[in-house]
Design a protein that fits this description.
By secondary structure, the protein is mostly helical. It has helices at 4-20, 39-51, 99-108, 119-125, 142-151, and strands spanning 83-84, 87-88.
């Protein structure tokens, strides 16, 4: 049987050990997670209208990003993701290891919740950055897809 004194000592030791752990050192390789953006919205609206809908290559193609010429945003050409009511319907087309999943990852790195500061907006509009070609104007309807994705 535990005596009252032993229980109190045990409780005191437990409380002391919990209070000793005030914070955890995240280490030298600590990375703040990136904002996650709605994948379904990307597959059904952003990718078909912005990534595949706008031509950026000198030859009127998507050649610049579908190669290693632009290491900041390498994309993969693939058949459009099948969507209904804003949702992908064929799960084999999306996810890790798929071309669409790779594009989502690459484009998400160029996205920001404040879309006006997102490279996916500032570069192709040439607002802030020295993109080699103006792909669309800030007034282009495709900008609404970027703005909506930022809030999804």
């Amino acid at each position: 049987m535990w005596t009252t004194a032993a229980r109190c000592a045990g409780l005191g030791l437990a409380l002391a050990s919990m209070s000793a752990c005030v914070s955890v050192d995240p280490g030298a390789d600590y990375i703040v997670p990136l904002e996650e953006f709605n994948a379904s919205y990307f597959y059904c609206f952003v990718e078909p209208n912005l990534i595949f809908g706008k031509k950026c290559g000198d030859d009127g193609s998507h050649g610049c990003h579908f190669s290693d010429k632009v290491p900041e945003l390498v994309l993969t050409d693939h058949p459009p993701v099948t969507c209904a009511n804003g949702q992908p319907t064929d799960m084999t087309q999306i996810g890790n290891g798929t071309a669409a999943g790779g594009n989502l990852s690459a484009v998400s790195l160029q996205m920001d919740t404040d879309y006006l500061n997102a490279p996916i907006y500032t570069w192709p509009t040439q607002i802030v950055s020295a993109h080699p070609k103006q792909v669309f104007l800030p007034s282009d309807p495709v900008v609404q897809y970027i703005a909506t994705w930022a809030q999804e």
